[in-house]
User: What shape does this take?
Amino acid sequence: MTTPPVLNSDILSAADSRLTLAPKVLARFWRKVDIKSKDECWQWHGTITSGYGVFAITSKHSVRAHRVAYELLVGPIPDSMVSDHLCRNRSCCNPNHIDIVSNKENVLRGIGPTAINGQKVTCKHGHPFSEENTRTFPQGNGLMRICKTCALERTRKWREKLKQQSASLAG
Assistant: This one.
């Protein structure tokens, strides 16, 4: 492990007025970061939870290590924003690998079902997810997209089935 890049009191105080750490706490933090070049991941060598490095500032206050590194070296992360690991390595503390984005942007950049579905430009039958052909409605914490062409086809089939059932009951 090497020493942290350009960490003097002027840079720290200018970077973030919210995050002020005592020199002993700062030294303890940087001892757990394997600092390499600006292009390489800076691996966290402390507690890992769900893949993310966790740093205990005090016995009762822990934060994600990459957020501490970012705020110390770059500046504050607005409350409405989250950090996105561009390197996809959750335990990386290199601020050059972290992009500050909205939670929505972070989810859509990911590899989970929401990101996969958000990238789709057509429904499973090949109809475009265009403004004219897409209906959205709230579901959970986000929006669900429905292809209007497919919805009309489902409704048509359902009505045909109802007609057939009522004809067989009447006949």
About this structure: The longest strand covers residues 52-58. The chain has six helices and nine strands. The CA atoms of residues 137 and 143 lie 5 Å apart. The mean pLDDT is 87.
